[in-house]
Write a structure and sequence with these properties.
- By secondary structure, the chain is of the alpha/beta class.
- The chain is built from 9 helices and 12 strands.
- Helix 7 links the parallel strand 6 and strand 7.
- The longest helix is centred in the middle third of the chain and has 14 residues.
Length: 309
């Protein structure tokens, strides 16, 4: 029996991981395998998905629309050989991925026979200015979508939500637009009720030349950080960042991980469980436009956050 694929797209920091976590936490008995692609050498997202459980496969250090195409197809083949076989596969793309390129790969007849693409879900930050949707990459993500989930809708005003909805409809009139508070999207919109039904293949746009727009710079430390110093360092780097995320242990709370997220100019901290043996005490990924941020600047800024050995 074919295994339907749900493709989750969305710009940097839109809230894709929150949506995927909600799907896995409310699987309602479904066997769901998740493929997580992060842009950078340190795959933070895979660790934030349902505790990086056995059902989560990580693709890192690239974008699956280009450099990791072969890895994606091999990963799908591996998942389909599992016993028991998953009933659904969720692929979370990186924030810099163009879904049209991934859709093209999934239209391969061999892949389609075993794992047809059922739904493309695009997650959009409802708090961002509607003008942000003019971004070429974000427009490409929206044009591929069957369903658009407005994340952080509870943080946006009614006027903001209305403006973003109008902009989405202008780009992708056929998409179903729903609020996704805390990552909740109605499963009926994402998964087929009839598992014997095979969706129709999709039309795909012609391949466009890949243009490197973003780069990632990862920072790690074998020693814990002092939280006030880290907050000051992030504040200095924030104007140059498109996105940042990380896991770290602090001097103030040893033996406990903190989860750091920076998206849309907002920084958040949350409890993240216990450290994994063998992993650095601090791991942070910084994403910026090409050439805006240097390795030397990150190292010099972050050096002062670490407790001297």
């Amino acid at each position: 029996m074919p295994v339907p694929i749900l493709l989750v797209a969305g710009f940097l920091g839109a809230g894709k991981t929150t949506v995927v976590n909600h799907l896995l936490a409310h699987a309602q008995g479904r066997r769901i395998a998740a493929v997580v692609n992060d842009f950078g050498a340190v795959n933070i997202d895979a660790e934030l998905i349902a505790g990086a459980s056995d059902g989560v496969v990580s693709l890192s250090n690239g974008c699956i629309c280009c450099t990791l195409e072969g890895d994606l197809l091999r990963t799908l083949a591996t998942l389909l050989r599992r016993d028991p076989r998953p009933e659904f596969i969720v692929i979370e793309t990186s924030g810099v991925a163009d879904p049209s390129d991934i859709v093209r790969n999934l239209m391969d007849p061999v892949v389609w026979k075993e794992a047809p693409l059922e739904t493309v879900l695009c997650v959009v930050d409802a708090t961002q200015p509607a003008a942000r949707l003019d971004d070429a990459l974000l427009r490409s993500q929206l044009r591929a979508a069957d369903v658009v989930a407005l994340s952080k809708a509870d943080l946006a005003s009614a006027e903001q939500r209305a403006q973003v909805r109008d902009s989405i409809r202008a780009i992708r009139p056929a998409a179903v637009v729903v609020d996704a508070i805390n990552g909740e999207v109605p499963s009926a919109l994402l998964f087929p009720a009839d598992l014997d039904r095979v969706p129709m293949p999709r039309e795909t746009e012609s391949r466009r030349p890949a243009v490197d727009r973003f780069e990632t710079l990862s920072w790690t430390s074998e020693r814990p950080v002092r939280l006030p110093r880290l907050q000051q360092a992030i504040g200095r780097l924030a104007p140059k960042l498109a996105r940042a995320k990380g896991l770290f242990e602090t001097v103030e709370q040893p033996g406990r991980l903190m989860v750091f997220q920076l998206a849309g100019g907002r920084a958040t901290l949350a409890a993240g469980g216990t450290p994994t043996p063998g992993q650095p005490r601090a791991r942070i990924v910084f994403i910026a436009e090409m050439g805006v941020l240097s390795r030397a600047e990150i190292d010099a800024t972050m050096e002062g956050c670490v407790e001297p050995g």
